[in-house]
Specification:
2 domains, 298 residues, 8 helices, six-stranded mixed sheet, alpha/beta
């Protein structure tokens, strides 16, 4: 009976992945993933994240898979207006202090896009202490309600993540089949409709420390390699839809960038990028670090 539950879990995962990856992106679209973190979308041509090394608010080290990565602030994206045909922003807006500024930036740099966040249901069941917003979708409008404090029950969340890490099949089956209740998924064209319900100042609580859930001690059975294989096949399939933009973006990335301080174009001089006003930004492991606070003036 348990093997049947494992099979149902794999089919449920496949259905969820298909919804997340089959977004109607055209083959010739240039795609940006903002907040790509440790799990970038396989169709993204350019990745953007806030840090190369700080993993506190993501599930693991940054992942690139050979694609250009730009370090930038979602509320002040270092890209020219209309640079991208499609912008993906998954599990990022619930982290930021000002989703309004972030949303305006997404609309500025992209023509269409996809936004995904945990729902209010999920936040109350298994929240992270650094998630600042409840998000819900009403009448094709994203509604952000700032939390009055960390909505976080250590005992409940510890139990939730423990079952997740142990890959309990009954729990996973419930999780994947509850995606409609557990996720907010929003597709937009030209405009993102949103409402901010906020009567709290920014940075009004200290993020509490959280113990890392214990790693699973279960022995790996036959199902685990099958599950990993299925996940790899799904990602590989959608990666094959990548366009010539991905292969050529390395040489043309500079033309998509702008200075986060003055919005001017950037030129490369050895291992720095510099704008006409003299703001310079470092290249770290080949990644432009385009944060206003990381600039120096020459």
């Amino acid at each position: 009976m348990r093997w049947l539950v494992h099979l149902l879990v794999m089919f449920s995962r496949l259905r969820l992945f298909r919804r997340k990856y089959k977004l109607g992106i055209h083959r010739d679209n240039l795609v940006l993933d903002v907040g790509s973190g440790n799990d970038p979308h396989p169709r993204a041509d350019v990745l953007c994240d806030f840090s190369l090394t700080d993993d506190w608010e993501r599930a693991g080290p940054i992942v690139r898979h050979g694609r250009p990565l730009v370090v930038g602030d979602i509320t002040n994206l270092p890209f020219i207006g209309g640079a991208f045909d499609y912008v993906i922003c998954s599990h990022t807006l619930e982290h930021v202090a000002s989703p309004e500024r972030a949303i305006r930036e997404l609309m500025r740099v992209g023509r269409r896009g996809y936004i995904e966040t945990p729902s209010e249901f999920t936040e109350k069941l298994s929240s992270f202490p650094f998630h600042k917003w409840f998000v819900r979708l009403e009448h094709d409008m994203l509604i952000f309600r700032r939390k009055s404090g960390p909505c976080f029950d250590p005992l409940l969340s510890s139990h939730f993540f423990s079952m997740w890490n142990q890959r309990d099949p009954y729990f996973l089956l419930w999780s994947f089949n509850s995606a409609d209740r557990g996720l907010v998924q929003y597709h937009w064209t030209r405009e993102i409709k949103y409402l901010i319900e906020d009567d709290q100042p920014e940075n009004y609580w200290d993020v509490p420390e959280i113990e890392e859930p214990a790693a699973s001690t279960r022995k790996e059975g036959v199902i685990s390699p099958l599950r990993r294989g299925l996940k790899w096949m799904i990602r590989s399939f959608y990666s094959t839809t990548a366009t010539p933009h991905r292969r050529k973006i390395g040489s043309s990335l500079l033309s998509l960038l702008r200075c986060p301080n003055c919005c001017a174009s950037l030129n490369r001089q050895q291992e720095i990028l510099i704008c006409p006003l003299g703001h310079s930004f470092p290249l770290v492991d080949g990644c432009p670090v385009l944060l206003a606070e990381s600039s120096s003036t020459t």
